[in-house]
Write a structure and sequence with these properties.
Protein name (chains A, B): AcrR family transcriptional regulator
Number of helices of chain A: 9
Pfam families (chains A, B): TetR_C_46, TetR_N
Order of helices and strands of chain A: HHHHHHHHH
Distance between the termini of chain A: 43 Å
Strand content of chain A: under 5%
Structural class of chain A: mainly alpha
GO molecular function, one term (chains A, B): DNA-binding transcription factor activity
Helix content of chain A: 55-70%
Keywords (chains A, B): DNA-binding, Transcription, Transcription regulation
Radius of gyration of chain A: 20 Å
Oligomer: homodimer
GO biological process, one term (chains A, B): negative regulation of DNA-templated transcription
CATH architecture of one domain in chain A: Orthogonal Bundle
Number of strands of chain A: 0
Largest sheet of chain A: none
CATH class of one domain in chain A: Mainly Alpha
CATH topology of one domain in chain A: Tetracycline Repressor, domain 2
Chain lengths: 229, 229
DNA sequence: GAGGTAACTTACTTGAAGTAAGGTGAACCA
DNA sequence: TGGTTCACCTTACTTCAAGTAAGTTACCTC
């Protein structure tokens, strides 16, 4: 037992480690039951370090959420690049989303199953910002291809998509007999016809999967920090 | 200042008061920041009473959620009775839902904005049970009128509806320029065509609002307690 | 009005969030 | 090679809220 004599680790690396451990423990015990002492211990350091780097327990959670959010945004954005049209773009995005939530199911529930708001306003804001980001992406997608629709309709439609995604991902993650593609297909079948007709009430066959528009290139807006202070 | 000398109050009445006060304070401060001492004080009693009646802070939250859940179920169920067909039934249910969330917006966010899971497994289960209840109601509605669809599709569709409702209600509650009816209309327009075609892929005009079926009478399953012990 | 019980209280323990103040090792300069 | 420095890290606290043990008091019943 040659007790490693506590190596000193540069800030960035230590921070990443702390985030990883915290994500794990939050997912394991829930935010309230998780203790900063335990997180510190499993990192092999002492508690004040956590406070030094993240300010508070909530701050630590916010950092976890933000990191996950960045990952998700990058993943889905990448998946959508080069889609053949709006339908294809939406489907690709959905598949990427469901794959992501499946791969990180434990820590995903940290956000989805609502571990967040408990922590306080900052964590709530962070989660809400993530949803809003998705809403904006959806709106951009819809309006790029279907410019006739009024803003209110776009927004409502985007909210519907985001809500449906969120719930369906939990359902999907809980079943082994459904693939990400199938989940996306389910959602597309329910949503697409309605979305199309609602957003663009022109002749019914104008848009039909493959479209005259060029390939879809999403807006990359990265993470828009709500309040970093 | 004739300090009312602390009237003694029967259990049922006191419990109701405690729930009301707790709902208020939870909504006001968030679950974590709310203190049992403050709740007790605002009730005009001392803390151990809360523990006597609800067992724990989480227990108190669970009681609040369950009460709200019962209200919601009763409200929507009542609204749907006597609908002219599946579309009408769904629309009525949605309108009732949005009205409900609007009327109780503060405490609703207690559930929706995720104040729940923070508390622990019991509160999470309670919220999830509420959603599942909605899912079951939707499934019953769909399958009663559209019996051709496989169970998996019904379930996926119901999840989509519940998720969309949840998100759209938050959106709707945050705006003064949208009525409950408009929110329901938005949702119906996005969902209904897809739902209809997905659930019953027969001739496209078989179902069209008014239907040959008799008026819709929902299953009243009340509150199905997850684990009361 | 005696007695029992449901409603209620005071006064504590426990445990985790957050903090003050100081130790230590590695990089860098002479 | 030795000293200086600063980022990394610790010990040892304070504070505050959840939860509890044990006892007290008003109301109801006979």
């Amino acid at each position: 037992m040659t007790e490693t004599p506590r190596r000193r680790v540069p800030r960035a690396e230590r921070e990443a480690q702390m985030r990883a451990v915290a994500e794990e423990i939050f997912a394991e015990r829930g935010f309230v039951a998780a203790s900063m002492d335990e997180i510190a211990e499993r990192c092999g350091i002492s508690k004040p370090m956590l406070y030094e780097y993240f300010g508070s327990k909530e701050g630590l959670l916010v950092a976890c959420i933000r990191a996950a959010r960045a990952d998700l945004a990058a993943t889905t954005t990448a998946a959508v690049v080069g889609a053949a049209g709006p339908e294809d773009a939406l489907r690709r995005g959905l598949v990427a989303f469901f794959r992501f939530t499946d791969a990180r199911r434990r820590s995903w529930s940290l956000v989805l199953r609502n571990e967040a708001a408990v922590a306080g306003p900052a964590a709530t804001a962070e989660v809400e910002a993530g949803r809003q980001q998705q809403v904006e992406i959806d709106i951009a997608l819809f309006s790029a291809f279907l410019p006739h629709a009024p803003r209110l309709d776009l927004e409502a439609a985007a909210q519907v998509v985001v809500g449906a995604c969120e719930r369906l991902s939990l359902w999907y993650v809980g079943r082994d007999d459904v693939t990400a593609e199938q989940a996306a297909d389910h959602l597309m079948r329910v949503l697409w016809t309605g979305l199309r007709s609602m957003l663009d009430p022109g002749p019914d066959d104008t848009v039909d999967g493959t479209v005259d528009s060029p390939t879809w290139t999403p807006v990359d807006r990265g993470i828009d920090a709500p309040t970093s202070g």
